[in-house]
Specification:
The chain has a domain at about 1-65. Helices cover about 0% and strands about 60% of the residues. The chain contains 3 helices and 38 strands. The protein has a 26-stranded antiparallel beta barrel. A 4-stranded antiparallel β-sheet has the order 1-2-3-4, with no helix packed on it. Strand 36 and strand 37 form a beta hairpin. The chain is globular and about 90 Å long. About 20% of the residues are buried.
Length: about 650
């Protein structure tokens, strides 16, 4: 026991008048070395010799071990709730289980009661988050939301068996706007209730899945509710069956959507149905060091049973044996493809550095005959992103409701440079183009068919020549019009710890006369401001910053060049004083065409003791790629680490 004790993590400096930047003063301090806990009575926390907190009693750990008790209060202010105060209470249930209570007082709205429970076992883990606000003054109603996540599995002679749960529900459509800082799973407009059981044993696998959506509608930006689905899948895949690659997939799905969603659209667009899919493929790959040659054949059979008749009057001439209205339909589509490529390799050097360079030409041909599919509803098909990866795929669509008719040849070539000493890839360049021999006829609802002839040219480059720089760019070039249809460019400059700048540019030309070009600029950074006066700091190692007395600027700006306005904004400053850190961050999130949530986050971190204020660290880590914490525990702490 110590009388009139003080506690701080600040290092002793010279001079008899020295006072630590922060310290905890207690009339009585009990140190329990066995339990590694300190209990203080009549305590006062002082910062810059100004009292900021007083408590009759408190306890805190002397090591990195967890301990139940009240955590540091969290303060906040925004344009929706006004002033907020959260006083978390942590419950250390067991080494692998804990819970945290988050009661939050909001000046303009009332009290929100939140809590989170986490568990981590040998074969499964998960967490449950629940929020409840009685009589929210903003909406004059009770508000609640919950999120449950579970991942687990067991294995044995019967194979591997897994259970996955991802369930999120909220009380009303405005929840995502009014609680922007709730768990990220509760701030989306499409909330899943996804339950699946998976099994696998050798070449066999199967799964059962139930997926139901809660759609949060907004009057000025409504979205079409997706179908709920109950699904059973099975697969047999044998990659080496006498030299052949063989796979067979089966899937049975019930698609349903509520009556309100059905009434908002025509029955031809939204109709409940059962769908059975069988997909089989057989290939005989030839692979070697100099290249590959892979012929492949596959067949895709789909059967539908509709809850209500589908109008087929527009297809009476194309569909044999079907009446004007049908409650079932079957479609079978074969596909043939040939994928071949060569790999040439040589030793070379550029700018005094030795490299191993490859040259990889590739040809891909696919043939899928036309089968009428326009009468079928679309449950899960979407257009594939046109890229240097998808250009070598058999179908231009994903999903099972549209199988594109194709008679096309893709030609491409890529070259890669590898460092001769380390083997690291430093440069990757690629170009590809499709030649379509016939007009495409199968489209998505409202889509435009691709014409016969040459497609746009795809160009891509990724550069890692210097470890400090990373450049990635892709261009879809329309040779007929002499302009880019889509282009992306990103560059990252990361010369040393705590110095990073990310810049990205994305352009998408309008696909129709009613749409507009999309042009976005994204800039994110973390950088020491002291660099402006040539105070370069020190490399103290991971999680230790670059020395005390240093300022850092952090932020991310998302700018819409088409509308000439900032969409989302995060900007702030961090200050490292050695034994304490200060952070001030402003955040603006767009929630509608004319609405946005704004808040200012201020946090004081007393290193090795507590954080007080609104925590911006999650926001910074999510928005700034390669953001680094100024203090991050990388080794077990010692209670004597700052003793002199």
């Amino acid at each position: 026991m110590v009388q009139n004790a003080t506690f701080t993590t600040c290092r002793r400096e010279g001079g008899p008048e020295w006072v630590p930047a922060w310290f905890l003063r207690a009339t009585t301090l009990h140190l329990d070395s066995e339990e590694e806990v300190a209990e203080a009575e009549d305590t006062t926390l002082r910062f810059q010799n100004v009292p900021v907190l007083g408590l009759p009693a408190m306890s805190f750990p002397l090591s990195g071990e967890r301990q139940s008790g009240v955590l540091s209060p969290v303060y906040g202010v925004d344009n929706i709730s006004g002033t907020e105060i959260t006083i978390p209470y942590y419950v250390n249930i067991a080494p692998n289980r804990d819970a945290t209570l988050y009661p939050t007082w909001m000046r303009l709205r009332g009290v929100n009661y939140g809590g989170e429970f986490r568990y981590l076992e040998e074969s499964y883990s998960g967490r449950l988050r629940v929020d409840y606000m009685p009589d929210d003054k903003l909406r004059e109603m009770d508000r609640e939301g919950y999120y449950f996540e579970h991942r687990g599995g067991v294995s044995g002679s019967y194979g591997s068996l897994g259970l996955n749960l991802n369930i999120a529900r909220v009380s009303d459509d405005n929840y995502w706007r009014d609680f922007p800082r709730a768990s990220g799973s509760l701030t989306q407009r499409l909330l899943p209730a996804d339950v699946s059981v998976n099994w696998g044993l050798g070449p066999y696998s199967a799964s059962v899945r139930s997926l139901r959506w809660q759609t949060l509608q907004v009057p000025d930006a409504p979205i079409v509710p997706p179908y709920d689905r109950q699904q059973l899948t099975a697969r047999y895949a044998e990659p080496s069956l006498g030299g052949f690659d063989f796979s067979l997939d089966g899937e049975y799905t019930e698609f349903t959507v509520d009556a309100l969603a059905l009434s908002s659209q025509t029955s031809a667009e939204r109709v409940n149905a059962d769908r059975t899919v069988w997909r089989g493929s057989l290939s005989y790959p030839f692979r070697g060091a100099a290249g590959f040659f892979i012929p492949k054949a596959s067949i895709h059979t789909t059967n539908y049973r509709f809850e209500q008749p589908v109008d087929l009057s527009n297809y009476s001439g194309a569909l044999t044996g079907l009446s004007a209205d049908a409650t079932s339909a079957t479609r079978t589509v074969p596909t043939y493809s040939l994928d071949t490529g060569l790999v040439f390799e040589r030793a070379t050097s550029y700018f005094g550095a030795a490299y191993r360079q490859t040259l990889e030409p590739r040809l891909f041909y696919t043939r899928t005959p036309f089968v009428e599919q326009g009468y079928l509803p679309n449950y899960d098909s979407a257009a594939q992103d046109f890229s240097l990866t998808s250009v070598y795929s058999e179908s231009t669509f994903m999903g099972n409701d549209r199988i594109a008719d194709n008679n096309l040849l893709t030609a491409g070539v890529s070259t890669r440079f590898f460092d001769a000493e380390t083997g690291a890839e430093t440069v990757h360049l690629g170009v590809a183009q499709r030649l379509r021999f016939e007009d495409q006829r199968v489209t998505l609802p409202g889509g435009t068919p691709s014409p016969e002839g040459l497609s746009d040219i795809l160009l891509g480059a990724e550069l890692n020549v210097d470890p400090r720089w990373h450049v990635d760019t892709a261009v879809q070039w329309n040779d007929r019009l002499g302009e880019s249809e889509r282009s992306t460019f990103s560059v990252r400059y990361n010369p040393s710890p705590y110095r990073v700048v990310n810049l990205a540019y994305r352009f998408q030309r309008a696909q129709s006369e009613t749409s507009e070009d999309s042009e976005l600029i994204d800039l994110g950074w973390q950088w020491p401001i002291n660099d402006l006066w040539r105070d370069w700091g020190e490399d103290l190692g991971p999680g230790r910053g670059q020395g005390s007395g240093r300022w850092y600027s952090v932020g991310r700006l998302n700018y819409n060049q088409t509308d000439r306005k900032l969409v989302d904004t995060t900007m702030g400053f961090e200050y490292d004083a050695g034994c304490w850190l200060g952070r001030v961050v402003f955040e603006r999130l767009q929630t509608g065409l004319t609405t946005a949530n704004q808040r200012i986050m201020f946090q004081l971190e007393l290193v090795g003791f507590a954080r007080v204020g609104v925590d911006p660290l999650q926001t910074l880590q999510k928005n700034i790629p390669r953001y680094q914490l100024l203090r991050e525990q990388t080794t077990a702490p010692s209670r004597f680490s700052n003793y002199e």
